[in-house]
Every structure is written in structure tokens, then in C-alpha cells.
Predict the structure.
Amino acid sequence: METRNSIRPFGPVVIDIENITKDYVMGEEVVRALRGVTLQIRRNEYIAIMGPSGSGKSTLMNMLGCLDTPSSGRYEFNGKNVAEMDDDELAAVRNREIGFVFQTFNLLPRATSLRNVELPLIYAGIESERREARATQVLADVGLGDRIHHKPNELSGGQRQRVAIARALVNGPSIILADEPTGNLDSKTGEEIMDLFEDLYQRGNTIILVTHERDIAVHARRTVHLRDGLIEMDHAGFIPELDLPVAR
Amino acid sequence: MKRFLYELSESWKIAAAQMRSNLTRSTLTALGVIIGIIAVTLMGTAVNGISIGFDKSMAVLGDDVLYVTQWPWKPVDDWWNYRDRKKIKTEYAETLNRMIAVTPNSNLVVAVPTSNLMRSIKYGGNQVDNVFVLGTTSDFIITSTIDCTAGRFFNELESRGGANVVVIGYDVADALFPAQSPIDKSVLINGQLFKVIGVNTRQGTFLGLFSWDSMVAMPLGAFNKYFSAKSESDVRVKVKDKRRLTDAKGELTGLMRRVRGLPPEKKDDFSINEQQAFKSTLDPVKNSIAIAGLFITGLSLFVGAIGIMNITFVSVKERTKEIGTRKALGARRRTILLQFLIESTALCLLGGFIGLVFAYLMCFGIGKAFPSFPIHFSLGLVLVSMIVSIITGLFSGFAPAWTASRLDPVTALRYE
């Protein structure tokens, strides 16, 4: 793809977090997963969040995805304070504003691609015909126009992840939040999926990749490195030598 | 609202898919409910049948007839107050009829005397013991639901003349004349010959309650001639309009006080009874049978419900990750709650439906095998069992569904 390294102009701020912390109580011990993270993400960004396991990467992703709320600090999503939302409001944000892509795809095994992609639309209260039309359209967009009536076990890994991406896109979310999206795929299929993300970025989507793989992170236009619950580095592009393992 | 409907239909689809994919498990779980519903439905049917049987036996008494008796038809604590009352005499009926005739707009139609006692009855080598022998007038047919399947009831002429004729009940006829028509044969009661002129239509007995099938009726004149010694007498009075039974009762009380010549300060020395009074003493019995029966069978349904609860808990556990995914995609707590409630309810409804089909077939079989038992399978019962199934489903699904809806999405997504 020739546009690979082109950077699209940024839009308004979507995610604005300031000094957030998250503590977990594990038995008697308090684990401080995030120790004060400040981050702004604008519309039309393509950002990779990197870090070794235990760095707080997953916790930060859960925060960004409104699956969890911070122990302290400020989190505004499209100008709305997430920390003060109740369960139903968080569910609504996840439904309309965030498109999740998981490492393990997380498709409903007994439902067709179409039904899987329709699911967020059901939760959004869209009527049946519009649901079907929209889901069919999005499946075609990710290159699965001929697979809409297949069930996950009739699809390859790459195709399953495409269904999951279609499901993430179907409600027109503000951000796509992908957690190790190629973790369960071979490298060739993984590249195809990354091409799809590039394509989505070029079409104006905001993408947040959470990964520990450099090969994946290089696709992003901005990289945030986490270590021990803090942002170690936040820079444009991908600088491979900065991501080498550091002796502790 | 619209979203709720979409979620509802989505939940039904999921429930159906879930049952299909776990067919063995669903069947075994539903079996508990199937057995429960069969038990409850059959018990309901039996209770219904008993109730109908009681009512049928009660119908013998007639709901538009008042009975003048020495003892009331209800348990009394002060029996000594009734023991010394004067006996009811059959002659009162005539006096009452004369009074009714001169009362304008009377609520009463006719008074009929009856005397009865138990005797054996013989024909040839056949004998039936403990037959209810009734002496009455030809007006008896007005107060009774009695009907003749062969021959006729005795007429006014035979009644006044005290002719030696009898009308016999169906079972008596069956026992004495197994292979021939009883009409115009002479039967022996207490050493006297009586000509059979009619046989009653079969009424059916239930739980040994009184039935016309084991009775013999004869003119009061003949009865008094041969059996007056130890007989019991009462007077039954037909009411014009059963909706005005209370008025009729008041009028009859007045008439009876005149017959007995009671001064105003004296209390009634007779009782006026109606079918309803008898019913109200039987109803508690009927109800306790129903409550005990339904409680015991309800326990089996409860066990079925626990099975459903258990399997729904398993289902929630197994699909923790799916619940996490759904929450990530925007399912709210109540969406998840609804989904699992519907799954358990669908399972119970299916079990209930199958159970109902079995229960219906069994009722049908029992009805064929024992025609005398008044079994009754009603639409109401179908509705009730379906509602019970739904309630069972909601009851047994609630705890697991609640657990599912409260799952933390992060933990659920990480669950393997």
C-alpha cells in the first residue's frame, strides 16, 4: 500500500486522560497497575500501546475501552467524564463509541458472521432490516461479502478476525481498540489483517493497537511505551532501537 | 422499548440455539420439569375430578329444594338442643301445600314428604342388602332430578292409594335382574311383594356418596303400611326461583312455625336445609385434599426447578467469556439478565409443554380404563401449567442470571 507512511490530519481530542491510577487488591497486597498516566488521543490517530507484560498495558486498555474505571484521575471520552458513569452508561459508550477487536476473536460460535456483526446493532436498538443491511455492508467492506452466512468454525483464522473487525466497525465507533489482533494468526494472515487496519485508518478511523510485538507496532503512526504503570515514552512513528529489551 | 423487544427476540433465538446445541443436557434438565408438570397436572385433574364428583353427588339434593328436618345439615356443638325436638311428620307436607296454595306470590311450589329406612330387597335367588327405601308422593319427581330409563315413576293415583309399586335404582335393577327387564316383575321387600314399574337412569356413584342408583321409591301409603316403625321422615319443598332462596327459606320458616304452632318468643324447633349448607361442610374437606395433594406434587416440580437452576449456573459459568464479549459490545446488565432468564424459562416451557402432552395422554388412558372416575382435563389447567412453567423458569433462572449480569466485564473477558 503506497499510502502506508502518510499521516492523516488529526481531528479533535477523543480520549483525554490525566494522571489516572488503578489499584487492585490481590489478597493482602495492593497492586498498583497504573501509577499516573496522562495521555491524549485525537481523532484519526493510529497509535500503538506497547510494553512488556505487567507494564499496565492491559489495564490501560480496559480503561480506554470503558470496561473499567480508574481509581483516581480524570478520563474524558469525547468530553464526557467516564469516571462518573454508571454501568449502563459505560455499556452505551462501549456500544456506540468503541469497537473492540480481541486476540481470540470472541465471536459467538453458533451464530453466522451476519448475526455476529449484527449483535452491537441489536444492543443499540436498531431495527431488523437496517441491522441486516448495515452488517452486510460492513462485512463486504472487510472483504467477506461472500461469507455472511458462514459460522465461525467454517472460516479461517484471518476471516474470523475480519468478522470481528466488521463487528467492531458496525456501529461507526469513535475508536477501534485492538488487543493483540494478530496474536492468534500466522504472520502472513497477520500482515493481511494489518493491511486491513491500514485501510481502515486511511478511511478515517481512529485505531488503538495494544501489542507487545514490534512487527505489529511498526504499522502505527505513534507509539506509547508503558513500563511499571507509567508512560515511559510517547513518540511519533516507530523507533525500533528504543524498543529493544532494556536490562533491569 | 424497541431495544427491549429486539433484545427479547435475540434472547429467544439464543435460548433456542443453546438448547439445540446442548440437546442431551437440555433434555435431561427438562425431564425434571416434565415429571413435575405431569405430577402437578394429574393431581390438578384428580382434584378437579373429586370436586366434580362431589358436585354431582350434591346435585342429587337439588339446588332449588329446601329440606325440613329435625337435625341441621351441619356439625352442631349443642346436640342436646336438637335431640328433644319433635320429629318431622309426613303430614306436614299436606298442611304446607294447603298454605302454599292460599299464599299469593308464594316463593314455594310444592312440599313433598319423604320417609326412609334401609332394607334388603329380593328377587328370585338375588338379594341386595342395605337398600335405601324411600316412601314419598308422586310429586317427588318435581323436586328431584330423577329420570326413568325404563317404565315410569308412580302416578298420583298409585300415590294416594298406597299401591304396592316401586321404582328401583339402576344398580338395584342391575343386581336383581342381570339378564331381563325388571318392569312388571315383583320384588320382595320385608316379606311384601312390590311390582316394579320403573328403573332410574344411571347416575353414577362417587367415593361412596349417596346416589339414586342404590335406592327404591314407593308410595308413602304403602311405606307407612309396612315400614313406618323405625323410619326417618322429612319434608322437601321445591322453590320457585332459586335466586330467591333466602326469601323462600324465610317464608317456609314462617309456615313451619305456624304448622308447629310456635309462639313468637319460642325458637324454631326444626331445621331448614339446602344443598349449599351441605356443600359448605364438605368444601373444607375437598380443599384440604387439594392443598395437600398439590403441595406434595409441587415438591417434584420444585426439584425440577432446582435442576434448571443448576444447569443455568453451569451455562453462565461456561459462557463467562461470551458474557464478557457481549458486555464489551454494549450489552447492559439487564440485557444479560434477560437472556439467561429467557433461557431457563424456555427450558421450563418446553418441559411444561411435553409434560402436559404426557399428562393429557395419561388422563385419556385413565378416563378410558376407569370411566366412573370423573376425570377432567380443562383448558384452564393447560393455562395454569404453562403459567406455572414460566414462573418456575423465572424462579430457577433468577439467581444464575443475576450472577451473570453482575459479572465484571474485564474478569469475564479474561476467563478461559
